[in-house]
Specification:
This protein has one helix and seven strands, in the order αβββββββ. By secondary structure, the chain is mainly beta.
Length: 141
């Protein structure tokens, strides 16, 4: 197919094309996204998230209005010196991630979290569903 339209296979010279390609690529770029697994364990939900190289001090977890929010921030500084050439190099890296998941019927005051070997485990105990009190049957006349 590329032989039929060779002008579409290479990089575009039009700035608009580069802009739109960058924009749409950013929508599918997940390198700063948190990878999670969510399991229903019967009496609780278990969420596991990969947190390689992130200290627990840099992780914030909130549960409000049925939304679990996990935020991370990582800052790294690398410094190298070579005394012979008096060369010094400093690099700084910073990244942050945020993930929100809707989880209803959770006992907010019993949520626990632990970080072990780069895996964050959040246990969210379930509460029994409350019966809907605003439901009534309407008679058709």
């Amino acid at each position: 197919m590329a032989d039929l339209f060779p002008m579409l296979t290479g990089p575009s010279l039009m700035p608009e094309d580069r802009f739109f390609r960058k924009f749409f690529d950013s929508l599918t770029d997940h390198k700063n996204s948190l990878a999670i697994d969510l399991k229903d364990e019967g009496d609780h939900f278990l969420l596991e998230a990969d947190m390689p190289g992130i200290a627990k001090e840099n992780i914030k977890i909130h549960y409000k209005d049925n939304v679990l929010t996990i935020q991370t921030e990582k800052t790294e500084e690398k410094k190298e010196e070579n005394e012979e050439k008096r060369y010094m190099m400093r690099e700084r890296y910073s990244s942050s991630s945020k993930r929100q998941i809707i989880l209803e019927n959770v006992k907010a005051d019993e949520i626990t979290a632990a970080l072990d070997n780069g895996i964050l485990r959040i246990t969210l105990p379930k509460k029994e569903k409350e019966p809907e009190t605003n439901v009534r049957e309407i008679e058709i006349k």
